[in-house]
Design goal:
3-stranded antiparallel sheet, 9 helices, 2 domains, about 40% helix, alpha/beta, binds pantoate, Pantoate--beta-alanine Ligase, Chain: A,domain 2, Rossmann fold
Length: about 290
């Protein structure tokens, strides 16, 4: 496994991989790798013969009051995990390498960023789209793999790739969960044992909505109300949003159709957690959005 810190060297390596006829996959990460990331890498490996991962905590996607400073980091541990999965290249740039003096470009995906996390995290998806575009230009992959846990991020990136005619397949991978159902996230480490118990209210909400949907309930307001009271019955929880929306446009729906996204953002203590499920008959497949 080769670790590359310079963008120029990474671009040269990526170019030679392509010239040699390799199929290249990228898994972009912010490090502190968990099983969810490792699953993205395994999917990447299955679809390609050279796997690049990037580890970069991107400052431009954090708001001024967000947790950039305390975002967990463990580069040595990450490299060890990547090596075990069989990653070929790790792109590990510094902030200076990604945003050198004079840097001034930001990429804006318009409508799908106006909902869900885009409301409480203004500028977040501009930061994500910009850094992902840069990472794609630097690593030149044929495909890039993202988790469906960050459903809106996957939507924004798929839209950007389509709109900018980037010749890259975007693959979404189902959320990996702890045995008790909590979605894997680097931020879970901030939860106290009591908060972690309350954090299970997210998964319970998805199950409750799934049951209501299967029993024929189609009123968004009814489902939303049931979920809100379930979440708030757990201590230390504060709801950012409970939204039922179209899985493509992310616009709110009043009446559920055969495919509706339920997306949640809940603050548990000081930790903001998200989760989602597409309510439809037979959900959780791999979504491929080339
Ligand atoms: O999902 C993440 O970890 C980040 O948002 C990403 C895609 C690596 C961009 O910084």
């Amino acid at each position: 496994m080769e670790v590359i810190e310079s963008r120029k060297q990474m671009q040269e390596r990526a170019e030679s991989l392509r010239l040699a006829g390799h199929t290249v996959a990228l898994v972009p990460t912010m490090g502190f790798l968990h099983e969810g990331h490792l699953e993205l890498m395994k999917v990447g490996k299955r679809h390609s013969d050279k796997l690049i991962i990037s580890i970069f905590v991107n400052p431009t996607q954090f708001g001024p009051s967000e947790d950039l400073g305390k975002y967990p980091r463990d580069t040595e541990g990450d490299l060890e995990k990547a090596r075990k999965v069989g990653v070929d290249f790790v792109f590990l740039p510094s902030t200076q390498e990604m945003y050198p003096e004079g840097y001034q470009t930001r990429l804006q995906v318009e409508r799908v960023t106006q909902h869900l996390c885009g409301i409480s995290r203004p500028g977040h998806f501009e930061g994500v789209a910009t850094v992902v575009a840069k990472l794609l230009n630097i690593t030149k992959p044929h495909m890039a793999i993202f988790g469906q846990k960050d459903f809106q991020q996957l939507t924004v990136i798929s839209r950007m790739v389509m709109d900018l005619n980037m010749d890259i397949q975007i693959i979404g991978v189902p959320t990996v969960r702890e045995p008790d159902g909590l979605a894997m996230s680097s931020r879970n480490k901030f939860l106290s044992p009591e908060e972690r118990e309350s954090a299970l209210s997210l998964r319970k909400s998805l199950d409750l909505a799934g049951e209501m949907f299967m029993e024929g309930e189609r009123g968004a307001r009814v489902i939303k109300k049931a979920i809100e009271s379930l979440i708030l019955s757990h201590p230390h929880t504060e709801i950012d949003y409970v939204t039922l929306c179209d899985p493509v446009t992310l616009e709110d729906v009043e009446t559920l159709t055969d495919e509706t996204l339920l997306a949640l953002a809940v603050r548990v203590g000081t930790t903001r957690l998200i989760d989602n499920r597409v309510l439809c008959k037979g959900s959780d497949q791999i979504i491929s959005r080339s």
